[in-house]
Amino acid sequence: MSLTGVAALIAALSFAVIACAAVYLSIRITRVLGDATALVRETRADQQAVLARANAAVDRAHGQLDRTDAVVASMDELGAGVSELAGQVSTLAGLGRSLAAGPVGRAAAVAYGVRHAVALRRSPRRALAGQVVNGAELPSANRAGGR
Hints:
This protein has about 150 residues and is mainly α. The protein contains three helices and two strands.
């Protein structure tokens, strides 16, 4: 074999090795691309499920906000009612103060004082249960009555 024949044989073997390597690499790349395609498909399905759950959560949040708006409106109504009631109570308190400080209040105080003084004069002085009289404590009503 001549030198050109050997060179041609080496070139043919190199070409065959390169062709086998290219076929092997193309098979490996095809498998990797197939796995990547399956992964993308699964990810897309998971993304759709996540998006559906996110949309449901947003819808629930909108519902909660609508209910919160209704609660805020009713709280505003309640606040207005309480303010009105406070004004009425303040007016009634002023009326009560004017009655107590005026002649009606003074007459009532005198009548109470007279009635209390008469009651103290008419009945003998009674000791209350639990009160110390002459150094000894009287039994309380709960212990004496058996309750």
